[in-house]
Write a structure and sequence with these properties.
Number of domains: 3
Largest sheet: 5 strands, parallel
Number of helices: 17
CATH superfamily of the largest domain: P-loop containing nucleotide triphosphate hydrolases
Shape: globular
CATH architecture of the largest domain: 3-Layer(aba) Sandwich
Helix content: 40-55%
Number of strands: 7
Length: 385
């Protein structure tokens, strides 16, 4: 695919796939933008939210518009490998051959949606890890290279043990998926009714083959101009308590490059750092990340912002509930007792959340949060900043 064809495919993906999805799924713009970035980067996306918030429907509609085969499954603690990957072929089993019948199952899908992902048990965990990380399914002597474009996982909770942490880590980007705000409910009802009763929606607007070619062009995006500021940002995020392994730091370059491709550029710039808002491990980290990434975006030049992704140009509005959870978490740690080195780290966290309070629109909420910040400064023995 030539550079011009590559840009054309990215433009069609935006105009004919993601924009119609945004009209059909009210209040899900953020998730749809991240689905597009993850798709182009060939990375996995994790959705955190309760049932009934259109997670599965979003992936199904995306697959429909890309003419791709989807495998959609709800995991339970008792899910067996056969339910995901297919049973052994009985005919070949009689001849002593262990061959999996994958027809209609995960190994044949272009898109995979795994609901309640963190219910995965030890019987399927290792196989899932290989699927997510290497795009390979292995059973005994059998090794199958998968045609996967992306995997979307969802859960209403975050992992609580090491085995599930390894699974969660395979999802490079994470985004909340909640019910819409009350004022948007009427629009959701209208859009949902229209979607349910429209049978002639376009299909196969962009082919799976074109998406694969676009994914291969990720390696051609120039990252040299952002390498130094990216290194500085990763170091700052680590210092703020956001764990980013070297492996994840390398892979995150793919989503930065995908942001550039979706904007029709062959060179990344600082504005593409917006994708790093979505690398949190806990809900408390979300406002910290939002503040640090907003600071990084403010260093982008006018020229860089002029050709940036829409998501980079939208000032990230502070979520008072997220900030409150972050402040409460710091207070619990202080009450439990911390070492001097940990106190320095907590001071940095409070400073970040304090700056985030300024972005809270509601005056009463903002003042309440600022009072909480002052109380933490008092406990830390630091003058208000």
């Amino acid at each position: 695919m030539s550079e011009s064809a590559n840009s054309a495919t990215a433009a069609v993906l935006t105009e004919k796939v993601t924009e119609p999805l945004k009209r059909a799924f009210v209040g899900k713009d953020e998730i749809i933008d991240l689905l597009a970035v993850s798709l182009v980067a060939g990375e996995n996306l994790f959705l955190l939210g309760p049932p009934g918030t259109a997670k599965s429907a979003l992936v199904q509609e995306l697959a429909r518009r890309l003419d791709g085969q989807i495998f959609d499954y709800l995991l339970t603690r008792f899910t067996e490998p056969n339910e995901l990957f297919g049973p052994f072929d009985i005919r070949q089993l009689r001849d002593g051959q262990l061959v999996t019948n994958t027809e209609g199952m995960l190994p044949e899908a272009s898109f995979v949606f795994l609901d309640e992902l963190l219910n995965a048990n030890s019987a399927i965990l290792n196989s899932l890890l290989m699927v997510l990380n290497e795009r390979i399914f292995r059973r005994g002597r059998e090794t199958i290279k998968l045609p996967l474009l992306m995997v979307v996982g969802a859960s209403n909770r975050l992992p609580e043990d090491d085995a599930l942490n390894a699974l969660f880590d395979r999802f490079l980007l994470r985004v909340p998926c909640d019910n819409v705000a009350p004022e948007a409910l009427a629009a959701v009802l209208t859009a949902g009714w229209r979607l349910d009763n429209t049978s002639d929606r376009p299909t196969g607007v962009v082919s799976v083959k074109e998406i694969r070619q676009l994914q291969r062009r990720i390696a051609d995006v120039q990252l040299e101009s952002v390498r130094e500021p990216y290194v500085e940002l990763v170091q700052r995020l680590r210092h703020a308590g956001i764990p980013i392994s070297d492996r994840r730091a390398v892979r995150l370059q793919r989503v930065i490059a995908a942001s550039a491709l979706l904007c029709g550029r062959q060179e990344a710039n600082r504005a593409d750092f917006w994708v790093l808002r979505y690398i949190w491990n806990t809900e408390e980290q979300q406002p910290v990340l939002a503040s640090l990434i907003q600071n990084a975006l403010e260093k982008a030049s006018e020229n860089e912002m002029a050709v940036s992704h829409t998501r980079a140009r939208q000032a990230d509005e502070a979520d008072p509930e997220q900030i409150g959870r972050g402040l409460s978490n710091i207070e619990r740690q202080l009450n439990d007792g911390v070492e001097d080195t940990e106190r320095v780290y907590l001071q940095d966290q409070v400073a970040i959340l304090a700056s985030r309070c300024e972005w809270v629109r509601n005056e009463q909420q903002r003042e309440f949060l600022q009072q909480q910040v002052q109380q933490l400064w008092d406990k830390l023995g630091v003058n208000a900043k």
